Amino acid sequence: MIIAPSLLAGNHAAFGKEAARVSKSGADWLHLDIMDGHFVPNISFGPQVVKAIRPFSKLFFDVHLMCSKPEILLEPFAGAGADEMIIHVELGEQVPSLIWKIKSLGKKVGLAINPPTAIAEVQPFLEQIDLLLVMTVNPGFGGQGFIHETLPKIQQAEACRREKNLPYRISVDGGIN
Q1: 153-156: which pairs have CB atoms within 8 A and are 24 or more residues apart?
Q2: Stretch 92-99: mean pLDDT
């Protein structure tokens, strides 16, 4: 099990100190929720914040791009210190080129799926990714309760991983307490 606290839950006035605190807490990764105000209604922060906090932590930076045009952000986040970039399967036809671009930047690739989206949407990409992120809340707002109807999706992702002997990790995001 990997524990990856979200920086977004920290004190926004002290992101560097919060990154250092997460590093000292025993967490494995730091999850960075990037929201553009289009794909989801809220806005969080950009690559300049990731670059600014990078010196405060040697943890694996798991960058979750809840953005409608992640292609313009991949290089900036790679340069800022992202270790993995997660895009959403709901981006449709953009997904194959985004996966290719992330890999070409030498980064790990994650693919996220929202609660109402069928698990079948991610299946064509499972052999190409390092992580499948099952959203257990609707993306874009903190503090939501866990959506229990996402549990079968997690089970299906695990069954597919075993059946095809694929190495991708399964991650969940939201409502975990």
Answers
A1: 153/113, 153/115, 153/119, 156/119
A2: 98
Lookup: tokens for 129: 């990714």
Angle (CA) 136-151-89 rounded to 5° is 55
Report, in angstroms and rounded to the nearest whole number, the Rg of the chain calculated over CA atoms: 15
Q: What percent of the chain has pLDDT over 90?
A: 86
pLDDT tens, 2-41?
899 999 888 999 999 999 999 999 999 999 999 999 999 9
Cα(98)–Cα(86) distance, rounded to whole angstroms? 10
Which one is catalytic: 33, 62, 83, 130? 33
CB 57 within 8 A of CB 81: no
Q: Given 36, 83, 130, 173, which residue is catalytic?
A: 173
The Cα 104–Cα 123 span in angstroms is 22
Largest CA distance in the chain: 46
Q: Is 173 a catalytic residue?
A: yes
* 33 a catalytic residue: yes
The model's pTM: 0.95
Query: Per the structure block, which two tokens stand in for 137?
Result: 């809340």
98 or 142, which is more confident? 98
Q: Would you state the structure tokens that stand for residue 136, as one six-digit string?
A: 């257990």
